[in-house]
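Handout, section 4.2: multi-component inputs.
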Amino acid sequence: MKPFVEVCDLSLRFETNQKNIFSNINFELYQGETVLLLGPSGSGKSTLTSCLNGIFPRELDGEMDGDIFIDGRKVSDYKPGELSKKVGVVFQDPETQFCMLTVEDEVAFGLENIGVPHVEMEAKIDDVLSLVHLSEFKESNVSTLSGGQKQKLALACILALDPSLIILDEPTANLDPIATKDVIQTINMLKKKMSFGLIIIEHKLDGWTDLAERCLLLNRRGEIFYDGSLREAIRDQRLQLAEQGIWLPKISQYLLENNPELIDLPLTVEEFTEYPSKWGYIEQEKSKQNLPVQVNPILETRNLSWSAKKREIVKNVSLTFYEGEFVAIVGANGSGKTSLSRILAGIQKPDCGNTLLKGKPLNEWKESLLRQEIGYVFQNPEHQFITNSVYDEVAFSLKIKNISVEAIQDKVHLILEAFGLLELKDEHPFSISQGQKRRLSVATMIVDDQSFLLLDEPTFGQDANSNAELMHLLQQRHQSNSTIIMITHDMEIVDHYATRVIVINNGKVVADTPPDRLWEMDSRKLKEWQLELPVRVQIQNIYEKEKDAYYVFTTS
Amino acid sequence: MFLQRLNPSIKALTIMILVVLLAFIFEPMTPLLFLIWTVSITFIFGKVNFKKYALYFIPFVIFSFGMLWTSVVFADTPKNQDEIVVLLGMAYPRETLLTALALSIRVLNVAALSLLFVFTTNIVHFILSMMQQLRLPPKIAYAVLAGYRFLPMMRDEIKLIHDAHRIRGVNQAKTVTEKWNNYKRYSIPLLASAIRKAERTAIAMESKGFTGDKNRTFYRQFTVKKTDWLFPLIMLTGFLAALLAS
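Output:
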């Protein structure tokens, strides 16, 4: 049997770059096969996608060597648009892959492109929408869908063209955990019904491991360093995986930290549950963090409420934040977390209630003085870059304060060094990598010794390495007695770093406790708030259950 | 409603022809009668919300009054200086006043025609119909459609960038120059993200098989039916009647 995809000695370089994005890529993929393509950010995964669906080399400013054969024909021999019937792609960003206003028009767009006759369209559209469970939204506006629904719509658009290969280019990177699960489930279900092949490009492996046995691993230089079973990769290539910043599934990662001697690792919690003792789990007490004493209140809010478009988004929130706390704010999408954080930072005025910073109401602070106290890091780091170089970016808030040039230089130098950005100080902030942008945005927010830092989902869409680096930096800040408030979906971070967790549901604070206390709460409540237990706690629970069962067995 | 169901291209063409025809009329009576005709058609066959219509009409009324005023005050010396009309205690040459009225009513008339179109046409349908009836290249049509989706996104983004800059300690702009400088600063991140978004959308469209080729099928088909010709007929009849009556 001939392979469906055959990539031979592929390398690619952009005109603006000295180095190749990737080189010597060789692999084959058979009809209906599923493969995971893993690699750190910047290893050329998305560029490879563009090569496979024929957009490169046609639209490429640069050089491409080597050949790709799809279904036995060279990609460059296909006419423009013809390949869309063979290869479909679901992209990362749910906002920018649509061009029509309503769901049905969007699905129809692809069908129109390949010239499906008018009479067959309606049936096809209904068909694919019901496959991804979006039938009831057929006439809805695309902009009213949630992120997860948009990704499912993107999938439906591709399915309508009936391709033999579907490439998922980090389809869940911009989604919260619940939507992520939903999308993965949908794909799982489709895969059982249909025979398309799949290339899954992802940062985080959780949930995908059931779908694919085989994986391709890329390193930073854009070379494939492993092609084979994922399980074996985790067993044999552990060092390299860690070096390249490729995430392991949460459970494997956790067990490995717990016991680095382990050779075989489970890939999912279910696998662990089946036979927990097989994995040589060593029960450990979580090293108890010293919870900071709540003595010096730094920020207090009283009865905050805020509504937009006649909907109450923040409802009667009264909170006190103390010096030296590491607070995680968690909750479902649209529960009002971001709005609350914006009010806390003084960017958004509440409709009623007030906020006191160090005992003085926010609106009585002079803007420039307020910004020396509070730092706020946006979800998208690009939004807050103002200048044309990394150095100026960090120096900016110092410069508007008329500090001497030497003093600024010293300070900026120190910060850039601590954040690993010193070599990039002359680069444009927009041209550095995603992880570096994130670190830069944090650096700009603490250069003025701000002791109160608010972050809106800082770990979104980053690879394991940049994530670890960022969390390490934040922890350092925390240890030097800064107060950190962080919105996050990642329960591992909450479990690992936070000293206090606040759960927001429908604009109200429904829980405000140390994390350990939260994990002990009624599981139905956690489900209602769309929270998952962190892996450590899941394992602990399973382990204890087994111990109990064993106990019952021996005593009866 | 009849106006809403009409083929958008036919509607647009009819209105364009009428605007051109109006440009040849230099006396106030014909446009006045035809204005009444247009507005009546809008409400009878379009069931347009009166309040909203009035709201959109107000700026045109102000503009046309300004037009009336300036053309009276800055008019050429009329040939026939003897005929004087006295209005609100002031005397005007009759000829000047009539030309000025003709001009300002023409403005109102063009406004009424445009509003008739805007209030009864779905923009997406209009673009689709232009592709199917007027041979608008799909490349342009879909670019416009995609851009149309982008506008609200850009608005949200400007607000975000504004907040982000505030956070960086950029003082709130008070003077016009400060505001201008602020917007200059916003433009780079805004453009950068717009370009990136546009690129992503383009790649997504291309990977769904879009080539800009004119040879495509349509989910929403727009055809010209016999009843579609009723609209130009009604409007042109109205125009002729107004012309004859004046």
